[in-house]
Write a structure and sequence with these properties.
Elements: H1 8-21, H2 24-30, E1 36-41, E2 44-49, H3 50-59, E3 73-81, E4 84-93, E5 96-107, E6 110-122
Parallel strand pairs: 1-6
Antiparallel strand pairs: 1-2, 3-4, 4-5, 5-6
Length: 124
């Protein structure tokens, strides 16, 4: 499926759709292959490569298939120039409620996410 990667907002909407649908191909299209995911667990920094994360996405049931509520939105977009953006978003995959910090860069073929750091809360 083709999509418009001409704006940061289009990439983030694709990100939200890919998360909710557990669509690793959608997510892989907007994440640079060298990107990684970082979070703190029990006081320790954890790092996951994009290919490993996409494998995990492929193995889970989507929020859409489970009929779970969808709530995702952009909190801020900070553009330091025409090719670099820092994006803070909120999204959920109940029981986890995430705050994601994404770095996106406009490369030769459009915007891609080059880094993701996140935190989440567990709720019943």
């Amino acid at each position: 499926m083709a999509y418009d990667r001409s704006t940061v907002e289009a990439v983030i909407q694709h990100y939200f759709d890919g998360l909710y649908e557990a669509d690793a191909d959608k997510l892989g299209a907007i994440f640079h292959p060298s990107a990684d995911l970082r979070w703190v667990e029990n006081g320790e920094l954890k790092v996951l490569t994009t290919p490993d994360w996409l494998s995990m996405v492929r193995s889970r049931t989507s929020g859409k298939a489970d009929g779970k509520a969808r709530e995702d939105f952009i909190v801020t977009v900070d553009r330091s120039d025409e090719k670099t953006a820092f994006i803070k978003v909120r999204c959920q995959l109940p029981p986890r409620y995430f705050t994601d910090y994404l770095v996106a860069m406009k490369l030769a073929d459009g915007w891609q996410i080059v880094s993701k750091s996140y935190r989440y809360d567990l709720k019943d």
